[in-house]
Write a structure and sequence with these properties.
The protein is α/β, with parallel strands linked by helices. It has 6 helices and 9 strands.
Length: 244
């Protein structure tokens, strides 16, 4: 008999071999979220890089990217009511709020939380792996969606149907760990005309390809609408620092 957890309604995109990774969420009741940390810092990535931002980091992720820099969010979190999360995020007084993880779209309360943050006048960013349906997110929010390259070990989870749900103001991010990843990303950008439809971002795994290599690959490819980005926070603070 299989010992896999039953698949609750909010997790239709979690494959059977990854269901054990979301076990912590099974006991979180409606109206609550499992939050790993919340803090005020500066946005380190995306077209919003450099702006002060409130980060709401949810706990638990069903993916296991080989280069993940936030594994500390996999197995630890504090249960909070959605109202408490909203009030705390607003209390910082910062107009920019990002929900990240972990994987925020694993928690059903994220969707009304995004709406409430938008209603409160905040600019809301959602960092998501791209393995989960983004169609039900408030259209006022800015989705920053990874397309996982092969070296992540999770490229088979890419939910390509999301491309039809994204808006022109949304952003697609590729994290590059090798020249092979770059070649894959270049093909995906061209095949789906991603640079014509969305903001496209490419960054190197920290400690992986040198930024100058990534720039050279981009210029040779003549993808002139694709933006190279650095993880700014890892240059400001120690790369292993948390809560920044």
């Amino acid at each position: 008999m299989s010992s896999a957890l039953p698949l609750p309604t909010p997790w239709p995109d979690v494959p059977s071999d990854a269901r054990h990774r979301v076990a912590l969420l099974a006991d979180v009741p409606p109206g609550e979220l499992l939050i790993h940390e919340m803090y005020l810092s500066v946005q380190g990535e995306s077209t919003f890089a450099g702006l002060p931002c409130v980060f709401v980091r949810t706990a638990v992720c069903d993916s296991r990217c080989k280069w993940c820099d936030t594994p500390h969010a996999f197995n630890r979190g504090e249960r909070m009511t959605r109202a408490a999360v909203l009030n705390r995020a607003l209390a910082f007084g910062c107009p920019l709020v990002e929900l990240t993880g972990g994987e925020p779209l694993l928690q059903a309360e994220v969707f009304p939380l995004v709406r409430e943050l938008c209603d409160a006048g905040r600019t809301v960013l959602i960092e998501t792996s791209g393995a989960h349906d983004v169609a039900h997110l408030d259209r006022r929010a800015h989705v920053i969606m990874d397309l996982k390259c092969p070296d992540s070990g999770e490229s088979h989870r890419n939910r390509w149907a999301n491309l039809e749900a994204l808006k022109p103001t949304d952003q697609i991010k590729f994290v590059i760990a090798s020249r092979g990843d770059w070649d894959w990303a270049e093909r995906a950008i061209r095949e789906h005309k991603l640079d014509e439809r969305f903001e496209c971002l490419v960054s190197a795994v920290f400690g992986g390809p040198k930024p100058v290599e990534l720039v050279e690959w981009l210029l040779v490819a003549k993808l002139f609408r694709v933006r190279v980005q650095l993880q700014m926070h890892k240059y400001i603070w120690d790369p292993a620092a948390r809560g920044v």
